[in-house]
């Protein structure tokens, strides 16, 4: 049983109401005539106990609620609330599913969620992003509410996430810049780490996977089976005034893709000091060292499908460290003051002029006040970021970027049915670059020293109305904003027969997203579930995409403002559990439909697309996902599947110069379906798992010219004590 202290739980008696402090403790007055105490907390079942000795110590244990509508989330408004009462669409990943599917990095698990796609490492929510060549994300990654994208490229480093210590992952769909600033244009992925419980806990796991031969034997280049090996250990301990979480992870990959290897090690160290019943302070540390070899696209679609095209190989040694200090204080009026910061050190040493170094400093002060009588919660704050970057990837120049923002969020409950949320943010961005001079053979590119700055306000408004006992209707609209990354503006590098060019004139993206949705709780016999249906509409101005261009007689790609775009669609999610206590069955299913278009399908855009009709590149119109698991006497059997329709449009130039791509896409034009199965047995503190991924051995690509893994088999052992 998890015996984590609950901070801010409500405790009531017949004559008094209090909330628990930072240690989960409380003092309350109790009537001698009616000596009961009731405790409640969002996401938990209410518990009521009778007190026989009015001066005694009482321990109250709350059980997690089985009602999925009462899942507690924080990302939508920066306050704990039931997921059913949120004004925007939120998906939640629990650690159990991460462990069950043997995820080696968080992006593998995110692919289970309806409306979420990971394309070559970049997250896309409801089609908001396509394939961006590893530069610029419209989805903001947070680690415990602090931005965690790599500062130079706006790229999420999924391997920095300690899967073994996740409490839950919250995925917020839609523009969230009013709360979280630039890069939250398309949504937010917030990783929330677990804290120690009252009982020390140690857990460890080891996993091994090996890859079968592909269905088309011509694409097999190896004699010995490719494999991966991973292990991790985590310890959580609560001392008198000190909480400790410490973990180590190691992973090694000898890939099914030729010349693709990885060795990485990660350390996490979370320290929390309970200075008093009103003040805590802490320092969280993540360190990640990795040695990587990979390539960008294949040699050809047949015998070279798992081999690199000459000149696209990338070898790098990555050294990343994150230091997060924080202080949380509740004043005498129970207002919350939080100071938090981040130092993010990145040193990516690479050959072929692809090296980059960055050092980011982030700071935030947040104030939160709850007006209990009126049901109003005010959250306001100020943020600041400073980044220093030097990289061969960006012409060997020096860059200085700054970001500052001030925000406020108002959440108001009207009675027991209506929730209203309003947010506003004013954000400033600036970027300074030194001179750039690139001389590569006969090719020369120059960029003069420059400085750009801008500031924009963004707003959001959302409503949630409880129509019936388990029926909630919501609607929201929010603005989004994204300042271009250094990678998008200043990347200058040659790869194979093409180049990536700089574009110092690149403008910011600005847009909005809206939705109307319904969440319906369902209880029929042993079925506990909810059905969530949402229609959404998003528009983006000055959207950035890489287009084919030429400089000094050399062809290549350049990030360009292509104009305005519109994405409409439908998101359906049916999730729940059924069966008995002896035979519980959990399931997650979802379907997403997209209608992604350019608002002005002009000749410049049309000439760059592989299709002659209006559709955004690198989007699939239909996406179906499901995961089902049944458990009986410690034995669990699970299956998950994913259907993704054909990616209609890509860059036309890829069809022209990447060998075999056009023919591969013509033959494989029905989309792809992937089936994975798993089985596990849990005996006391041990758990043994066996998994088969890509059961039918499908040959498919998520993005062009990079063939995905053939059928593979995994063995995993978990132990806790």
TrEMBL record:
- Provide the membrane topology annotation: Multi-pass membrane protein
State the GO CC annotations: cell outer membrane
Q: What is its main location?
A: membrane
| Every TonB-dependent receptor-like beta-barrel domain range | 261-695
Q: Does the keyword Lipoprotein apply?
A: no
PROSITE patterns cross-referenced by the UniProt entry:
TONB_DEPENDENT_REC_3
Keyword list, A-Z: Cell outer membrane, Membrane, Receptor, Signal, TonB box, Transmembrane, Transmembrane beta strand, Transport
Location of the TonB-dependent receptor plug domain: 84-188
Q: Does the keyword Membrane apply?
A: yes
Give the InterPro entries listed for this entry. Beta-barrel_TonB, Beta-barrel_TonB_sf, Plug_dom, Plug_dom_sf, TonB-dep_rcpt-like
What name appears for this protein in its UniProt entry? TonB-dependent receptor
From what organism does this protein derive? Answer: Portibacter lacus
């Amino acid at each position: 049983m998890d015996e984590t202290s609950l901070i801010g739980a409500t405790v009531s008696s017949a004559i008094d109401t209090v909330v628990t402090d930072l240690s989960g403790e409380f003092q309350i007055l109790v009537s001698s005539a009616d000596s009961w105490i009731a405790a409640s907390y969002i996401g938990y079942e209410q518990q009521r106990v009778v007190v026989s000795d009015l001066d005694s110590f009482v321990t109250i244990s709350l059980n997690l609620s089985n009602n999925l509508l009462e899942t507690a989330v924080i990302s939508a408004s920066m306050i704990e609330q039931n997921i059913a009462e949120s004004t925007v669409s939120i998906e939640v990943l629990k650690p159990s599913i991460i462990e069950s599917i043997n995820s080696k990095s968080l992006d593998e698990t995110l692919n289970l969620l309806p409306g979420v796609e990971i394309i070559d490492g970049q997250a896309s929510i409801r089609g908001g992003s396509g394939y961006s060549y590893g530069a610029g994300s419209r989805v903001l990654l947070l680690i415990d509410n602090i931005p965690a994208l790599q500062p130079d490229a706006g790229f999420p480093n999924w391997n920095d996430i300690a899967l073994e210590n996740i409490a839950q992952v919250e995925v917020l769909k839609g523009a969230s810049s009013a709360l979280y600033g630039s890069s939250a244009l398309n949504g937010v992925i917030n990783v929330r780490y677990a804290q120690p419980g009252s009982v020390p806990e140690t857990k460890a796991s080891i996993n091994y996977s090996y890859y079968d031969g592909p269905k088309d034997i011509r694409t097999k280049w190896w004699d010995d089976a490719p494999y991966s090996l991973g292990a991790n250990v985590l310890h959580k301990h609560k001392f008198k005034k000190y909480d400790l979480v410490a973990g180590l992870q190691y992973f090694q990959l000898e890939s099914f893709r030729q010349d693709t290897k990885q060795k990485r090690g990660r350390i996490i160290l979370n320290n929390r000091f309970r200075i008093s019943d009103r003040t805590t302070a802490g320092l969280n540390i993540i360190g990640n060292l990795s040695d990587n070899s990979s390539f960008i696209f294949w040699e050809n679609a047949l015998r070279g499908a798992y081999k690199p095209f000459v000149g696209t190989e990338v070898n790098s040694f990555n050294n990343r460290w994150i230091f997060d200090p924080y202080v949380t204080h509740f004043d005498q009026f129970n207002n919350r003051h939080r100071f938090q910061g981040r130092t993010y050190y990145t040193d990516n040493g690479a050959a072929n002029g692809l090296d980059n170094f960055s050092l980011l400093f982030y700071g935030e002060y947040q104030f939160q006040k709850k007006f209990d009588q009126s049901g109003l919660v005010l959250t306001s704050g100020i943020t600041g970021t400073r980044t220093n970057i030097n990289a061969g990837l960006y012409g060997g120049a020096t860059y200085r970027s700054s970001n500052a923002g001030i925000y406020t969020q108002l959440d108001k409950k009207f009675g027991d049915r209506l929730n209203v949320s309003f947010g506003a943010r004013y954000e400033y961005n600036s970027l300074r670059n030194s001179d750039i001079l690139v001389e590569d053979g006969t090719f020369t590119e120059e960029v003069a020293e420059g400085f750009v700055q801008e500031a924009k306000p963004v707003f959001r408004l959302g409503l949630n109305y409880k129509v019936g006992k388990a029926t909630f209707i919501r609607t929201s609209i929010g603005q989004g904003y994204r300042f271009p990354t250094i990678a998008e503006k200043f990347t200058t590098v040659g790869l194979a027969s093409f180049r990536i060019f700089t574009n110092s004139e690149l403008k910011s993206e600005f847009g909005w997203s809206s939705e109307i949705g319904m969440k319906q709780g369902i209880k029929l016999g042993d079925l506990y579930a909810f059905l969530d249906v949402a229609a959404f509409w998003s528009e983006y101005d000055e959207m950035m995409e890489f287009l084919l261009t030429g400089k000094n007689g050399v062809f290549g790609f350049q990030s360009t403002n292509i104009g305005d775009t519109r994405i409409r669609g439908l998101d359906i999610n049916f999730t729940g559990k059924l069966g008995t206590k002896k035979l519980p069955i959990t399931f997650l299913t979802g379907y997403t439909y997209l209608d992604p278009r350019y608002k002005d399908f002009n000749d410049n855009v049309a000439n760059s697309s592989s299709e002659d009709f209006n559709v955004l590149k690198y989007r699939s119109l239909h996406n179906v996902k499901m995961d089902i698991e049944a458990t009986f006497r410690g034995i669990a059997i699970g299956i998950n599947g994913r259907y993704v329709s054909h990616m209609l449009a890509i860059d036309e130039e890829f069809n022209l110069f990447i060998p075999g791509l056009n023919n591969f896409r013509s033959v494989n034009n029905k989309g792809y379906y992937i089936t994975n199965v798993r089985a596990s047995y849990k005996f006391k503190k041990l758990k043994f798992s066996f998994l088969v991924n890509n059961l039918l051995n499908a040959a498919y690509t998520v993005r062009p010219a990079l063939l995905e893994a053939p059928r593979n088999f995994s063995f995993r052992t978990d132990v806790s004590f």
